[in-house]
Amino acid sequence: MQIIDANTAAEIFYGYEQLRGRCISTINTLTPEEILREMKAARSRKRNFFRLRHRLASGSIRDVHVYSGPINHEGRVLLHSNIEDMTPLYAFQKELEAYRDQLEWLPIGVYRATPGPVGVMISVNQAMCEILEVDAKADLIGRRASDFHPTPAAREELSSLIVNSGGVRRIERKLVSARGRQIYALLSVSITEEADGERFFEGSIQDITARKRAEIQRESAFRRLHNALDAAPIPIMLHRVDGAIEQVNAVWCNLTGYDKDELKTVAEWTRLAYGDRSGEVRAHIETLQHEYDTVDEGDYTIRCKDGSTRIWAFYSSALESPGQPDGMIMSTAVDVTAQRAQQQQERQAEAILQSAAEGITVTGPDRNIQRVNPSFTRITGYAMADVVGKNPRVLSSGRQDSAFYESMWQQIDQYGNWQGEIWNRRKNGEVYPEWLSISAIHDAKGNLINYAAVFTDLTELRQFQSSLQSLRRYDPLTGLANKATLLEWATQAIKVATRNRKGLALLAFGLDRFHLINETFGHKAGDNLLRQLAEQMKCVAGEDADIARIGGDHFALLVPDSSDDRALSDFLLRLRGISTHPFQVDQKTAITLSFSTGVAQYPVDAQTAVELLRGAETAMFQAKRHNPGLHTFLDGTTTASTQQRLLLEIDLRQAIENDQIEVYFQPVVSVADGRIIGAEGLARWQHPELGPVSPETFISIAEESGLIGALTETLLSKAAKRMADLCQRYSRPLRLAFNISAIQLNQSDFVEKILHELRAAGLAPTSFELELTESTLMQRVSDATDILAALREHGVSISIDDFGTGYSSLAYLQEIKAQTLKIDKRFIASCPTDKASGQLVRSIIAMGHALGMQLIAEGVETQAHLDFLRKLHCEFYQGYLFSKPLPFADFETLLSKEQHE
Ligand code: C2E
Ligand code: CA
Ligand code: CA
């Protein structure tokens, strides 16, 4: 075989000087016969090429593919060949072979299989034998790889996956080895195509059984832990350091009301549970993540879904790899809400016990003393050690008999409590009255565990009340008799005069324009002047004369026998002399006084003491009006005297009709924070001629003339409307306190009238407080109880005015269920400088609190008053310090200022 022709490309490739004419074996490693055999073999395999090794001029050997075919040339058959240099490919294949060798020793099973769903393995490596537990490779060759799948279904599923998607990568499947062992395997299968176009499956199997077993074990351990945590009776949360919550248990969700779905991250949890504080709490949690130890984090107040709060004590610890992003933290909590509330209560109870102004005794069910408080020691003189273990009988004064104690204990056992006044004996032997309240204390199951006795020392109150009794007869400023005493004297004198068939006269005199002196020189100077005047009067009338001070600047004198006209006029003349007498107002100023006098006589002008006084006063008012500085006798006829009285009444009636009587508002203020809680409505009358008339004066005229009903109605309607308006405008609850005269409690439709006015004004009855003076209550005990009960039922509160000046029995105050006590301004005035008044106010407050009432102090004029009241926990106050009674517009300004603060 000889080369006849060759193209330039061939010339260049082989590098010989001349290819043409050379024998084919020059470039071949095979003999021509061998070449022909290769050619035939290719043809029989239907291939259009065959592989040869050609030698180049340079001596190097190349792998070539030869595409050869016969052609006809001038009657001769020639062979025409295209040569393709395949050396790089074969070099690569060789490398691949070497690589296959390495595969042999890989720990991963590798095989090659014929294609198609029923392909069989044609080569495997050693690892395949080991994984599938066969002795020799020969045991695998010719078998299907899928034979090792556990079920025909699994087999099919995988084959179709491979065929459809051209292979699979890293699928986990369970296999069964030749010896029946279960294998977890990681499978990859790909379809490869050889250079000659043949296709194969090439697959790998990695035995991951050990890893898989460990994983499964870990998972089931986790599941068990998860279930255990979920069933745990306390709240538990597992979360990762990166903030993802792995688990919150059922108790956690039940107690807080949040769903598991809402609690996916620590940030979500802290936002829901801590609101504004969540950042702070999260920062704290982050510091915990580096500790393996359990950390006691203390109490946290968390917010539940329904808005309620709970207190949880948290304990946290790192479960795994602290500090790493996948580290796990376990937080457990104990719900201590009830416990803490209990502890708080105990602490509060202890603080109250220690600081209470009242004496407190706690006994066991056997009634023996278990403990007492510091006030107990202060009041009784017994230290705790003196009395612990003893029966409270050690304090007994012997003033109450055993029947008294028996009924007391009977009531405690039956109703759980008793209150009343008893006499006890101090350690130093002194007997004293106390207001005692005993309650039985039961545990949650209803067993009796303690008795608690709370008592207030009433000594000072009783002492004060008896000194007040003398005050009730005499005017403290001038030492003269007061109005009540004067009336007593007059009643007596009328009896004597009637017996002796004689007449008597009553003189009333009032200083003209005394208010100017007060305004110019101050109240102190005014008081001083009144004292000097009283002295002068005693001088003129004689030490034993019946002189009284019946009102601010009004005095009266009883002339027992007026049958002697000369004696009376003589008397009047001497009194007039006083007006020429100079009075010292202060060190520099002396002035003279003018006063108007009215005279009424028995039996011509009046029949009773009250009528007599009223007559004299009417005459005096008349004198003031028409001839100030002169005396006015009531005309001898009854008609005339009624007319005079009518004059004043008419003025008042007109004033009411013309709506000339105004309501002023004096703010009632909280002692604790200085906020206005409401106001007392006070009547004001500006008389066109007399100027401002004191409510004390015209209210009493209204009471006597039956005008009080109409007056109250118009004032209440006005006050209630304005207060209702303010409540609405400032949307806050304000309380209106309103004074009611004793006489009004007699009206049959009193309750309906009050409720009607409130309704018409749109003021809630709960915003209304009815003020009754202590003395009013004393006058009409029986019917008042029912009337007040009816009002209370509608929500109206009852307040006792001027408390401390009357003789209310404490039991009665309890019976009418007054909510508020108003401490009279006289007591406040001398507080806290005067020790006795201070003590008294202290005990009124303690007692009021013991009876469950709130206290309002009246007449608070100085900061010292207020500071004193604050110390005693008095709730509210009224007085010039905060504000005088104000016209409505000014009161509103005050309120709006407060609102905008
Ligand atoms: P009250 O009910 O005890 O009223 C308190 C009195 O104390 C008022 O006198 C008030 O102006 C005065 N006051 C307030 N703060 C101070 C203070 O800091 N120092 C001093 N020294 N006094 C202060 P007011 O307005 O002259 O009324 C006198 C009495 O007239 C009232 O005493 C009340 O009993 C009666 N009253 C007034 N308005 C009415 C009314 O509309 N109806 C009835 N039935 N009685 C009324
Ligand atoms: Ca009042
Ligand atoms: Ca008062």
Strand-pairing-aware structural class: alpha+beta
Question: In which order are the strands of the major sheet placed?
Answer: 26-27-29-30-31-32-33-34
Residue-averaged pLDDT: 85
Taking the sheet with the most strands, its summary is:
8 strands, mixed, barrel
Which stretches of 5+ consecutive residues score pLDDT under 50?
635-645
Helix % is 40-55%
Q: Please count the helical segments.
A: 30
Shape: elongated
Radius of gyration over C-alpha positions, nearest whole angstrom: 58 Å
Notes on the structure:
This protein is α+β, with helices and mostly antiparallel strands and 901 residues long. Helix content is 42%, strand content 26%. The protein is built from 30 helices and 34 strands. The strands form seven sheets. An eight-stranded mixed β-barrel has the order 26-27-29-30-31-32-33-34, surrounded by five helices. The chain has a five-stranded antiparallel sheet with strand order 5-4-8-7-6. A five-stranded antiparallel sheet has the order 10-9-13-12-11, with helices on both faces. Helix 17 runs antiparallel to helix 18 (565-578). The longest helix has 23 residues, at 209-231. The protein binds ligand C2E and calcium ion (2 copies). Ligand C2E binds next to strand 27, helix 21 and strand 31.
